[in-house]
Write a structure and sequence with these properties.
Length: 79
């Protein structure tokens, strides 16, 4: 499990605890987690034009936990 922060284009922020977050080939942001059987499923979806930035909570190079920005282009998955 990880904690993700989505900064939306309307100025709001959304904190989500999930198994992974990713960007699809068409740019859509997808937040996923597993059910009790271990099957991945979508918790939330966001159109690319509604999301200004995505961050994952994790350790920085200094070892201190912070919000790590995710790439603004390309596909990615973070756990």
């Amino acid at each position: 499990m990880a904690v993700f922060k989505l900064r939306l284009t309307d100025g709001r922020e959304r904190l989500i605890e999930a198994g992974r977050a990713g960007r699809t080939a068409d740019g859509q942001i997808v937040i996923e987690d597993t059910d009790s059987l271990g099957v991945w499923g979508c918790l939330e979806e966001y159109p690319a034009e509604k999301v200004a930035a995505v961050y994952r909570r994790g350790p920085a190079e200094s070892g201190i936990y912070t919000w790590i920005p995710q790439p603004v282009e390309g596909r990615w998955w973070r756990y």
